[in-house]
């Protein structure tokens, strides 16, 4: 083959089945969109009923084989049921993106910096969604994929899990760092099973997570070598790579997609 069939076959996901938590907005929606546009069956698993309904309908209108399930990833039994429902929708399950996450909480230096004033409820809330929710999604995915002897599990962490980040709270950086560790360890534990586990570590992308928070373009010029915030379409190539056979020798990897932000933070002052 000497034409574009080489790429098409490497990244082919036609007829395969995927579930994406947090799939009705932002990064998860971009993942769902590229998989659906590439001919896969995709289930959007998301807490927000209005978004699930609207995005499922929108992706179906453009020809996608897409279903939607309202689920809270902090409810482990509900996540397991939703992942099984995704498998039933598609008639098979090939991969799960554990992507749902939130960003709330305070910094150590803002108002209420004293230890006894730390907003522990924000810590618990972020941990429940961003870490425990990812763990329960991973377990639900493994329960379906391991008996098949093949599959892809992809966790969304953050560059904030790999370095400090003044734009988020310690609850968030801590949970994201733990997701990186969880993904690596799960990859090791599942190696040899046919199920791979990889971690995406996005830098700043314009999504609903930061709605209402706009530090201004100058901040991105200073903190991102490519000089701007990312568009979620720019994450689609990595998502398709990690979902498809093109990533057959990749497991336990942590893949920043950040306009160079991590490279900048590694540059000595
Ligand atoms: N946008 C960024 O700059 C950025 C950077 C690094 C990492 N991330 C990570 O990417 C992931 C997706 O975030 P996003 O930026 O697309 O945000 P987003 O708010 O646009 O989308 C997140 C989706 O997750 C859903 N969700 C939230 N809590 C849920 C729960 N308990 N159960 C099920 N669904 C739930 C929301 O309804 C929403 O549709 C998160 O894990 C986030 O930490 C985002």
Provide structural commentary:
This protein is of the alpha/beta class and 269 residues long. It has a single domain, classed as NAD(P)-binding Rossmann-like Domain (Rossmann fold). The chain is 43% helix and 14% strand. It has helices spanning 5-10, 26-37, 49-61, 76-90, 120-148, 170-190, 217-223, 236-243, 261-265; strands at residues 17-21, 41-46, 65-70, 95-98, 151-156, 195-202, 254-257. β1 (17-21), α2 and β2 form a beta-alpha-beta unit. Bound molecules: nicotinamide-adenine-dinucleotide (NAD). Residues 21-22, 24-28, 46-48, 51, 71-74, 99-102, 129-130, 133, 156, 158, 202, 204-205, 207-210 line the site of nicotinamide-adenine-dinucleotide.
Count of helix runs: 9
Number of strands: 7
| CATH secondary-structure class | Alpha Beta
Q: Main β-sheet, in a few words? A: 7 strands, parallel
What compounds are bound to the protein? nicotinamide-adenine-dinucleotide
Helix content: 40-55%
- Supply the helix-strand structural class: alpha/beta
CATH homologous superfamily assignment: NAD(P)-binding Rossmann-like Domain
Uncertain parts: none
Query: Based on CA inertia axes, which overall geometry fits?
Result: globular
Give the CATH topology.
Answer: Rossmann fold
Present the secondary structure layout.
Layout: H1 5-10, E1 17-21, H2 26-37, E2 41-46, H3 49-61, E3 65-70, H4 76-90, E4 95-98, H5 120-148, E5 151-156, H6 170-190, E6 195-202, H7 217-223, H8 236-243, E7 254-257, H9 261-265
Parallel strand pairs: 1-2, 1-4, 2-3, 4-5, 5-6, 6-7
The structure holds nicotinamide-adenine-dinucleotide.
């Amino acid at each position: 083959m000497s034409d574009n069939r080489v790429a098409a076959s490497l990244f082919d996901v036609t007829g395969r089945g995927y579930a994406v938590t947090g799939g009705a907005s932002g990064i998860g929606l971009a993942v769902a969109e590229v998989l659906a546009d590439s001919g896969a069956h995709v289930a959007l698993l998301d807490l927000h009923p209005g978004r699930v309904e609207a995005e499922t309908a929108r992706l179906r209108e453009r020809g996608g084989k897409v279903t939607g399930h309202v689920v809270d990833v902090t409810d482990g039994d509900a996540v397991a049921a939703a992942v099984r429902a995704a498998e039933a929708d598609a008639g098979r399950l090939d991969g799960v993106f554990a992507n749902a996450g939130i960003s709330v909480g305070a910094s150590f230096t803002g108002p209420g910096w004293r230890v006894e004033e730390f907003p522990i409820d924000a810590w618990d809330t972020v941990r429940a969604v961003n870490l425990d929710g990812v763990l329960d999604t991973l377990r639900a995915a493994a329960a379906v994929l391991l008996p098949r002897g093949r599959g892809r599990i992809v966790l969304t962490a953050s560059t904030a899990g790999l370095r400090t980040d003044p734009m988020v709270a310690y609850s968030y950086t801590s949970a994201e760092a733990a997701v990186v560790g969880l993904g690596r360890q799960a990859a090791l534990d599942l190696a040899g099973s046919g199920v791979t586990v990889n971690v995406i570590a996005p830098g700043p992308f314009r999504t609903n997570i930061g709605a209402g928070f706009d530090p201004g373009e100058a901040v991105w010029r200073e903190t991102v070598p490519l000089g701007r915030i990312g568009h979620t379409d720019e994450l689609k190539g990595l998502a398709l790579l990690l979902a498809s056979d093109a990533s057959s020798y990749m497991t336990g990897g942590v893949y920043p997609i950040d306009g160079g932000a991590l490279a900048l933070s590694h540059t000595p002052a």
